[in-house]
Amino acid sequence: MTSLTVNNQPVRYRLPPDTPLLWALRDASNLTGTKYGCGTGDCGACTVDIDGRAVRSCQVPIGRIEGSVVTTIEGLSRDRSHPVQQAFLAANVSQCGYCIPGMVMAAAALIQKHPDPSEELIRAQITNLCRCGIYPRLVEAIQRAARAQRGEETIPGAPLPGTDPADAPRTVPALVPGAMAQDGR
């Protein structure tokens, strides 16, 4: 049995120690926000935080991280209030959304270690792949999240899941150049 702390809860996996963390999270813990992408550690869709580091969970056998603290996208913030989640929403970073949980986890770990990341550092550290090409919005969103985490900027709250579109804020996020307001102005 492998014992971990997952999203602040003690977990004992009755799985072989060579089971990739990705499958322990998805299949045994039903934490499906961590995505399977390539299975080789190249795409980053499966990125989680292990002891403060962004790690590709498809490449980590659970037996190797006995006693570690693992945070998944579900444990980062269920109400989307983490600065990275807020900045991604405000910048309309997501397109298809498949890579976003891994990107969010990688970005959260980055700004935890580097509270004021440069564009160069972001591009060097966030190596997750996105077929939709969100990269131009990604850098600014991560820098905005870092400013918010440092208390230098406030990011308006995103509507919670299930919010009726009529009740959602009617403002265009500041990071969308050339976008029209929802009321046509």
From TrEMBL:
Molecular function in Gene Ontology: 2 iron, 2 sulfur cluster binding; isoquinoline 1-oxidoreductase activity; metal ion binding
CDD domains: fer2
PROSITE patterns: 2FE2S_FER_1, 2FE2S_FER_2
Region (Disordered): 150-185
Superkingdom of source: Bacteria
InterPro entries: 2Fe-2S-bd, 2Fe-2S-bd_dom_sf, 2Fe-2S_ferredoxin-like_sf, 2Fe-2S_ferredoxin-type, 2Fe2S_fd_BS, Beta-grasp_dom_sf, Diverse_Oxidoreductases
Its EC number(s): 1.3.99.16
Keywords, alphabetical: 2Fe-2S, Iron, Iron-sulfur, Metal-binding, Oxidoreductase
Domain 2Fe-2S ferredoxin-type: 1-76
Name used for this protein in its record: Isoquinoline 1-oxidoreductase alpha subunit
Species whose genome carries this gene: Sphingomonas pseudosanguinis
Biological classification of the source: Bacteria, Pseudomonadati, Pseudomonadota, Alphaproteobacteria, Sphingomonadales
